[in-house]
């Protein structure tokens, strides 16, 4: 037994009243009603509730509960419909972007298959040097980015290989076949940047490169091809699992020095390093600009260069990509890095940008 409105009522009425009070309290006003009408409606509901309590009319209370619950359900259904519409719109936009990526990937695959299907005779592709030294373009039905394979006969990540005859300087000797590896822009952000139109990647034959965020060595292997036997790639990767693949790749590409360490602590691998001409960074961390700056202060030559791949969602998933890119550029400027070039990596990567900067150690 309990007291409600100073009168003794049955437990059944108390239970129903409790439900009604809670539902009336949380039930929001109708979206189409004015504040004045909503307040008046609530007053009427309360008056009916008081009368039902005084009369201990369980049926009347049940009717009130049904009406109020119906209003709440209608409002919830309306809000759920709005959320579903918004989510559906976002999914449609993402599917359209993914379709563009799939179509571009299909073009790359088709050309790779064309190369693979060659059966003797003159090659169907023509090799031309790219404007970036050490990088080439294989021209067939479509154009493919390729690098000269430092280890002929070996693939690193299942990429296609092209053997092209090279004219011999000695007319008495047959033409020599040179092997090239297809550089897939969907697997390498550096390749995506090159195809996107970067003016200068500052990675060339004979250069020394510090590669931060080497992962399993997919892009590192192509950088090793570009710098050639006279160059060196210091490849830093924190993950031990990816590091094992990186080490295995480096066993055959002797110009790659794998370093399994946290790039936030360059002091830990300074004994393995020499001064480098360029730093390429793909670490995808919120403090990426600071990580690159620390390594630049330790190992980058004066007037050297930095090429950074920025993934906006890894820096700040709540801000627009353009805002994140601008913020990262400002951070770079505070660390003696002077940005010269910036471009996005669509259609190969979403919400990514590549920034190229020079480093001035001494002013």
Automatic annotation (TrEMBL):
It is found in: Nucleus, Nucleolus. The keyword Nucleus applies. Belongs to the methyltransferase superfamily. Fibrillarin family. InterPro entries: Fibrillarin (IPR000692), SAM-dependent_MTases_sf (IPR029063). GO terms for cellular component: box C/D methylation guide snoRNP complex; small-subunit processome. Coiled coil: none annotated. The keyword Electron transport does not apply. It catalyses: L-glutaminyl-[histone H2A] + S-adenosyl-L-methionine = N(5)-methyl-L-glutaminyl-[histone H2A] + S-adenosyl-L-homocysteine + H(+). Pfam families: Fibrillarin (PF01269). GO terms for biological process: box C/D sno(s)RNA 3'-end processing; snoRNA guided rRNA 2'-O-methylation. Its main location: nucleus. This is rRNA 2'-O-methyltransferase fibrillarin. GO terms for molecular function: histone H2AQ104 methyltransferase activity; RNA binding; rRNA methyltransferase activity. NCBIfam families: PRK04266.1-2 (NF003276).
């Amino acid at each position: 037994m309990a007291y409600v409105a100073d009168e003794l009522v049955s437990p059944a009425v108390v239970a129903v009243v409790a439900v009604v009070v809670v539902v009336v309290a949380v039930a929001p006003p109708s979206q189409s009603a004015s504040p004045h009408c909503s307040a008046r409606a609530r007053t009427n509901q309360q008056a009916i509730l008081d009368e039902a309590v005084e009369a201990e009319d369980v049926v009347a209370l049940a009717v009130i509960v049904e009406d109020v619950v119906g209003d709440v359900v209608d409002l919830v259904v309306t809000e759920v419909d709005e959320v579903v519409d918004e989510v559906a719109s976002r999914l449609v936009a993402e599917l359209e972007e993914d379709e563009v990526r799939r179509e571009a990937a299909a073009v790359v695959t088709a050309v790779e298959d064309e190369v693979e299907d060659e059966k003797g005779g003159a090659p169907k592709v023509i090799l031309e040097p790219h404007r970036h030294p050490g990088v080439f373009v294989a021209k067939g039905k479509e154009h493919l980015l390729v690098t000269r394979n430092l280890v002929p006969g070996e693939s690193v990540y299942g990429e296609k290989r092209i053997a092209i005859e090279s004219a011999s300087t000695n007319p008495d000797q047959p033409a020599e076949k040179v092997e090239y590896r297809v550089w897939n822009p969907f697997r390498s952000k550096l390749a995506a940047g090159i195809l996107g139109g970067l003016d200068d990647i500052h990675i060339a034959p004979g250069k020394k490169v510090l590669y931060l965020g080497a992962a399993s060595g997919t892009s590192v292997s192509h950088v090793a091809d570009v710098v050639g036997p006279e160059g060196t790639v210091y490849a830093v990767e924190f993950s031990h699992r990816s590091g094992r693949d990186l080490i295995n790749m480096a066993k055959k590409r002797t110009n790659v020095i794998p370093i399994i360490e946290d790039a936030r602590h360059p002091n830990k691998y300074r004994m393995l390093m020499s001064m480098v001409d360029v730093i390429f960074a793909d670490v995808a961390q919120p403090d990426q600009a600071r990580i690159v700056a620390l390594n630049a202060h330790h190992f980058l030559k004066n007037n050297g260069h930095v090429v950074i791949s920025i993934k906006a969602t890894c820096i700040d998933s709540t801000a627009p990509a353009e805002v994140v890119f601008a913020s990262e550029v400002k951070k770079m400027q505070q660390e003696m890095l002077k940005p010269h070039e910036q471009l996005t990596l669509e259609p190969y990567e979403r919400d990514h940008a590549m920034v190229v900067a020079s480093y001035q150690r001494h002013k």
